[in-house]
Amino acid sequence: MKLKNFMKLRQIADINAGYPFRGKIPVVPGSGVVAVQMKDITTQKEILWENCTHTELTAKREPYYLQPGDILVAARGNHYYAVIIRDEILQAGFQTVAAPHFFMIRVRSNNIIPEYLAWFLNQRACQGYLEQNAEGTLTKSIRRSVLEDVTVVMPDLAKQRSIINLANILGQEKKIVEGMLRNSERLMNIIANDLLSTLKQ
User: Fold this and answer.
1) CA distance 199 to 138
2) pTM
């Protein structure tokens, strides 16, 4: 029997809300638990683990601790980006939860690679669907049912791996270019400061 090459997200993954902190996430050094917040995500959609807040879990709900392969999707704002949880979470040595402004996706199908799913959710067509279905006035957000209803195109695993490899290469190239631009801006600032300093002499 030939497998369908597309499914709704709810058919291939479990989706849960982030941990229900009330108000500001408390800072509790040495607690052994950290919370990933939107401020901890870089423009390259990577997590700055050293910036994550050490905290304690006071709600009655059993926490969904993050593990490699999980995907975080921003549920609020103007951009509903997806972030893959990589193996470095194990090196940190802490139990980790997502802040309330995230949905956590855990793949339960053998026919899709989590890295590919994160890539797919970040593509323009999928982002457009989420933006069109966002609700709110000042601060927009997406409901879990909207995310669950995303149609995921699922090529064979070999093609998924090829897409992941290409995306990783392009990501590394983007980092290099952005680094060069930052260095160029610093150089221009140094030159401008030197010119201005001559006026004061």
Assistant:
1) 47
2) 0.85
